[in-house]
Design goal:
Elements lengths: L3 H9 L3 E7 L5 H8 L3 E8 L2 H13 L6 E5 L12 E7 L1 H10 L8 E6 L3 H10 L2 E11 L2 E10 L6 H6 L11 H21 L5 H28 L2
Parallel strand pairs: 1-2, 1-4, 2-3, 4-5
Antiparallel strand pairs: 5-7, 6-7
Helix pairs in contact: 1-2, 4-5, 7-8
Length: about 230
């Protein structure tokens, strides 16, 4: 059973002959991708021998052993063959950023599905640096917190500073989670602004950025509310 975050990752996966799940841990996502016919064969990697054994047990329990290759290794290092899609989920944004930059030559044009707990701007920046573009950015809620799931494909796209901070495709999402996600992000920025103004050393540039981002969030929230009103019968 996939939670909302992994269900969203599943939905963003293309149909493919070979895909890789990096840091697979419990292997719930790849097992679902294989059982439901989204992927024919999957490469599962993890840096932890214990985690890889967990994955082995799950794959064996579901009768999928002949459709899986398990490899121990760090980041994208174990990916030696071309994959049509590569997922990296359940890690911090800094870790995923470093993984993409260090292993870019192993991507070989694979579609990327990425989900981090933190530091989303670092992922957006790395995606741009490796010559990819984000074509989907979707919010979700699982285990009591909000997440973003990003999908990226080859093709460089320049993002502005604000798009790196806040996202670009995110605001094209039709997810019912978008409005509460933006409200939560607004609360976080307001808390930071309050702390900034109470600090002994002012940071006028950061305060200006926060105020600009808050205004942007407010405009997007008004837009969503207006669309909801128009949609009501």
């Amino acid at each position: 059973m996939l939670d909302e975050r992994l269900s969203l990752v599943f939905d963003l996966y293309p149909a493919c002959r070979l895909a890789a799940d990096i840091g697979t841990d419990h292997a719930h996502l790849p097992a679902a991708l294989l059982q439901r016919g989204r992927c024919q064969h999957m490469l599962l990697t993890d840096i932890s021998p214990a985690a890889l054994e967990n994955a082995r047990g799950e794959i064996s329990r579901r009768g999928l052993t002949d459709r899986v290759t398990l490899r121990l290794g760090d980041g994208l290092e174990p990916v030696s063959e071309p994959c049509e899609a590569i997922s990296v989920t359940g890690m911090g944004g800094r870790t995923i950023r470093d993984m993409l930059l260090d292993g870019r030559e192993r991507l070989r044009g694979a579609m990327l599905i990425l989900s981090a707990h933190t530091d989303w701007p670092l992922i957006r920046e790395a995606v741009m640096e490796i010559g990819y573009t984000i074509d989907r950015e979707e919010p979700c809620f699982a285990a009591g917190r909000f997440y973003l799931v990003l999908r990226a494909t080859p093709g460089r796209e320049a993002l502005s500073d604000r798009e790196l901070r806040l996202g670009k495709r995110l605001f094209q999402s039709r997810s019912p989670r978008l409005k509460p996600f933006l409200r939560r992000r607004r609360e976080i920025l307001l808390r930071e602004l309050k702390g900034l103004r109470a600090a002994s050393r002012p940071d006028p540039l950061r305060e200006e950025t926060l105020l600009s981002d808050l205004a942007f969030y407010d405009a997007e929230l008004r837009k969503i509310t207006s669309q909801e009103t128009e949609a009501d019968p």
